[in-house]
Design a protein that fits this description.
The complex is a heterodimer of chains A (273) and B (237).
Chain A lengths: L1 E2 L18 H25 L12 H33 L3 H16 L2 H14 L3 H26 L3 H9 L4 H12 L1 H22 L18 H11 L2 H30 L6
Helix pairs in contact in A: 1-10, 2-5, 2-8, 2-10, 4-5, 5-8, 8-9, 8-10, 9-10
Chain B lengths: L4 E10 L9 E9 L3 E5 L6 H9 L6 E5 L4 E4 L11 H8 L7 H14 L15 H13 L5 E5 L7 H18 L2 E6 L2 H7 L2 E6 L2 E7 L10 H14 L2
Parallel strand pairs in B: 3-7, 3-8, 5-6, 6-7
Antiparallel strand pairs in B: 1-2, 1-4, 8-9
The chains are: A mainly alpha (273), B alpha/beta (237).
Chain lengths: 273, 237
């Protein structure tokens, strides 16, 4: 050891809790949906004229419509994730890009999607691809929820993790696949839950397309649970309405139990302390 | 002082863009192969910057840093990937070495065994204590078979008993492997317990260097307290 002194100068992202036990999980599966269905049943029965609910559309059709809706949501979700991940990484890739892109994201996120929906519907109508209009609006709705949570996720990856990876020579694609992407799993899961919930909210209007087409007819509506809900409500078909709500709530509850809760639990492993 | 220096800093300064004043100025020292050096000093004094320059993670603003290519570093938090097991974290450090599978497995086993963590090889960091995580971090660094092992305040978040155990283990590892070790600590007692050389980093430079010539284990011996007082006097001067 040698020393030579030339000059001496004095000089979370908040974490989502998830049900741990089977009892807790069953509670969320049974009681929550039961409450919603009971509430809907009660409401349609106190609304005059309170006919005894009798579904004019068979359950099999409602289930098939729900499947169509689910596929639309799934396609929109996959597209949203595929676009959101690179967008979030681009936005956080440098301070300069971040300063430019984040305000743009804020503006785009704030634009009311439904206000633009008629434009998209007419646009997709030109190509005879009305399903595309619904998927596109669902995609846009989901995109910003996922981008926002992912941007937050990138920012909470500890600097030391990147320094360690750099010190071990892990760079480029390997850094992305072995460090960044796994580190974003918790935010991807929470963002996805929020995004898909927003998608379910929007599905009610995304399938009833004729209202956005000048001189449109109900023939132009998409076959899906959203369209069935709207039609049943406007026709006073309380039986179909309650049945459709029941199916949608059960599906969401099952998805929550078998997919989101499991993913939430699994994603805890990817969290930094 | 002894041999050809393995690490050499010549009039090194470092200024970060966000700071008006330099974080380090006119830092010059050398470290020979096999030495155990500890940088101590107040927080924000530039200790970690020196360590990161040795690691090649930070470039000096001016001056010259000569360092060997084979350097491995452990971090204050452990910097383990939470989704990987202890064994996989060690393997992560070796990712770029493209070792044959059997050699990779052998190295992981050897280094986890060296730090007493082989039995917990399949545990994730979330299932390990702070001390155990640091042990895995050290195993990950040693698995690279580096010439220099850099430790950035590895024991700062640990309780006294765990720290004492890790001190003993670190001295044993140093003697077993003959590695050059450069460690950062904010505790003078820790530096005196472990290192042959203590560099007092304050006032933005290497303020003073102390040679510690005491047999191990050093804790609570008369010589240990004398050395601590000697450095403390310089620290508060």
């Amino acid at each position: 050891m040698r020393h030579s002194r030339h000059v001496r100068h004095v000089s979370h992202t908040a974490t989502l809790s998830y049900p741990h036990s089977l009892v807790q999980r069953l509670y969320s599966l049974v009681l929550g949906p039961l409450f919603i269905v009971a509430l809907v049943f009660l409401l349609v029965n106190v609304l005059p004229p309170a006919a005894v609910p009798h579904a004019s559309i068979p359950l099999s059709t409602i289930l098939l419509a729900t499947l169509h809706t689910f596929i639309r949501l799934a396609i929109a979700y996959v597209l949203a994730v595929a676009v959101a991940v690179p967008l979030a990484l681009l936005a956080t890739s440098s301070h300069t890009i971040e300063e430019f892109l984040l305000p743009v994201f804020d503006i785009l996120e704030s634009v009311p999607i439904l206000a633009l929906f008629p434009v998209f519907v007419v646009l997709f109508l030109q190509f005879g691809f009305l399903n595309g209009a619904a998927i596109f609006i669902l995609f846009l709705t989901m995109l910003w929820d996922i981008v926002t949570t992912l941007v937050g996720g990138v920012k909470i990856i500890p600097k030391e993790i990147y320094q360690a990876a750099h010190a071990f020579g892990v760079r480029g694609t390997a850094l992305f696949t072995q460090v960044t992407l796994p580190a974003l799993v918790p935010q991807l899961v929470t963002g996805s839950i929020i995004a898909v919930a927003q998608g379910w909210n929007l599905i009610i209007v995304a399938e009833v397309l004729h209202t956005y087409i000048p001189g449109g007819t109900t023939e132009q509506d998409l076959f899906g649970i959203g369209a069935i809900l709207v039609k049943a409500a406007s026709a006073g078909d309380h039986g179909t309405f309650v049945m459709a709500v029941f199916v949608i709530v059960v599906l969401i509850a099952v998805l929550n139990l078998v997919l989101w809760q499991r993913l939430l639990h699994y994603s805890q492993r990817f969290r930094f302390d | 002082m002894h041999d050809t220096p393995l690490i050499s800093f010549s009039n090194v300064s470092k200024r970060y863009p966000e700071n008006e004043t330099p974080s380090l100025a006119h830092v010059s020292f050398t470290v020979a192969a096999g030495e155990f050096v500890c940088l101590v000093g107040p927080s924000g004094g530039g200790k970690t910057s020196i360590l990161k320059m040795i690691a090649g993670l930070v470039e000096p603003t001016s001056g010259r840093v000569d360092r060997p290519g084979e350097v491995a570093m452990t971090f204050q938090s452990g910097a383990l990937l939470p989704w990987l097991t202890a064994g996989e974290n060690v393997a992560f450090g070796l990712a770029r070495r493209n070792l044959p599978q059997d050699e990779l497995a052998a190295r992981i086993e050897r280094e986890l065994s060296r730090v007493g963590m082989l039995a917990l090889k399949d545990k994730h960091p979330g299932e390990l204590s702070g001390g155990q995580r640091q042990r895995v971090g050290i195993a990950r660094a040693l698995a690279l078979e580096p010439q220099v092992l850099l430790l950035d305040e590895p024991f700062s978040a640990l309780d006294a008993k765990t720290t004492a155990e890790l001190h003993d283990d670190l001295v044993r590892i140093w003697r077993e492997t003959g590695k050059t070790i450069v460690m950062v600590s904010h505790l003078i007692e820790e530096a005196v317990s472990l290192a042959e050389w203590v560099l007092l980093v304050q006032h933005d430079t290497i303020d003073e260097i102390f040679r510690i010539e005491l047999p191990y284990p050093r804790r609570d011996t008369e010589g240990f307290h004398k050395e601590v007082m000697r450095i403390r006097n310089a620290f508060f001067r």
